[in-house]
Design brief:
By secondary structure, the chain is α/β, with parallel strands linked by helices. The chain folds into two domains: 145 residues, Rossmann fold (3-Layer(aba) Sandwich), CATH 3.40.50; 185 residues, NAD(P)-binding Rossmann-like Domain (Rossmann fold), CATH 3.40.50. The protein is built from twelve helices and eleven strands. The strands form two sheets. It has a six-stranded parallel β-sheet with strand order 7-6-8-9-10-11, sandwiched between helices. Strands 2-1-3-4-5 form a five-stranded parallel β-sheet. Helix 2 crosses helix 12. It starts with 6 loop residues before the first helix and ends with a helix.
Length: 346
């Protein structure tokens, strides 16, 4: 996995590299797929500063849209739509050699297949504070029964809840995955004077690392920040959920399939778990980021979770801040420039 340096630092480095050469540098064409209106504004604003000519489309990268990349070796894609192997092959055939995905995770495309088709894939780094802040908000909302309180207040029922809230200083928080985001979450938790346990196959941060099963048995709240891959798919399955402390909470701002939803629902219904706050969900594709008010939702799991008073659902929005979006766009451009520079200089 390739993690880029922070956007501002990378931008300064890229500008200094380009300014050190007196020879004119031809404009680089980049096709931006799956580009929302807010991203498009930023790409149009930043591209001229980097000598880049963007081809911007809201359409996802598919076999039908590959002609939009014709003549551009570099493209940028979002995380909302999966890139199939046939699409990757089609992109390769029109000359694409580099994909910068505007996400930290790679689970929406097969990186090894892309490499076999002659395409290099890299992610972007953005401010970890966006997801870390949101995670803390979800933790606090979960332990203070915010969903039930707000729902009752909305119908003018202002009585005290039957369930009292919990204070973080009395709780143990288990952080699963201690990369940039997980480490930022731990930094914030220290300010609440709670006990923090950590689990990661490759410990990086200064933390109290314990085996995963130990963390699950001791934690009042478990928050997930590990990348999704074959080893972490259903990391919290039925067996591990059963090992969790009675009344514990699960927070997931990582990826939906880290958590086995079929095992989660009965644990919530029975009271085995105290609640969950989920910004990501298995099967979210085609539901999140779409206005479904007038369309039936086929996911029975999502509908059931939203019925439960102790479950908070948000539509994969933790990353979505001004700062993080700017970082994402800027680093996506820098990724493409860096690839071309490496290729040009051999």
């Amino acid at each position: 996995m390739t993690y880029r340096e922070p956007a501002r630092t990378a931008a300064r480095r890229t500008r200094s590299l380009s300014s050190s050469s007196s020879a004119p540098v031809p404009a680089l064409g980049i096709t931006i797929y799956g580009c929302g209106p807010d991203e498009a504004v930023l790409f149009r604003e930043m591209a001229p500063r980097f000598g880049v000519v963007p081809t911007i489309t809201e359409a996802a990268a598919t076999e039908a849209t590959t002609e939009l990349a014709w003549g551009n070796r570099c493209i940028s894609v979002g995380h909302k739509t999966r890139l199939t192997d046939s699409t990757l092959l089609a992109l390769s055939r029109v000359g694409v050699r580099y994909i910068s995905t505007r996400s930290i995770g790679y689970n929406h495309l097969d990186v090894k297949y892309a490499e076999s088709a002659g395409i290099c894939v890299e992610n972007v780094a953005y401010s970890p504070d966006s997801v870390a802040d949101y995670t803390l908000m979800l933790i606090l909302m979960a332990v203070r029964n915010a969903k039930s309180i707000i729902r009752r207040a909305d119908v003018h029922d202002y009585r005290l809840s039957d369930t009292r809230g919990k204070e973080l200083r009395d709780l143990t928080i288990g952080v699963v995955g201690t990369g940039r985001i997980g480490a930022a979450v731990m930094d914030r938790l220290r300010g609440f004077d709670c006990r923090v346990l950590a689990y990661d196959n490759h410990p990086l941060a200064a933390a109290d690392y314990v085996p995963l099963d130990d963390l699950l048995q001791r934690s009042d709240i478990v928050t997930l920040h590990t990348p999704l891959n074959a080893d972490t798919h259903h990391l919290l399955d039925r067996h591990r959920i059963e090992k969790m402390k009675h009344g514990a909470f699960i927070i997931n701002t990582g990826r939906g399939p880290l958590l086995d939803t079929e095992a989660l629902i009965p644990a919530l219904e029975s009271g085995r778990l105290g609640g969950a706050a989920l910004d990501v969900l298995e099967g979210e594709e085609g539901i999140f980021y779409v206005d479904r008010r007038e369309k039936p939702i086929e996911s029975k799991q999502l509908l059931r979770l939203q019925e439960l008073p102790n479950v908070l659902i948000s539509p994969h929005i933790a990353y979505y801040t001004d700062h993080a979006l700017s970082d994402t766009v800027e680093n996506s451009i820098i990724n493409c420039l860096t690839f071309e520079s490496r290729n040009h200089h051999g």
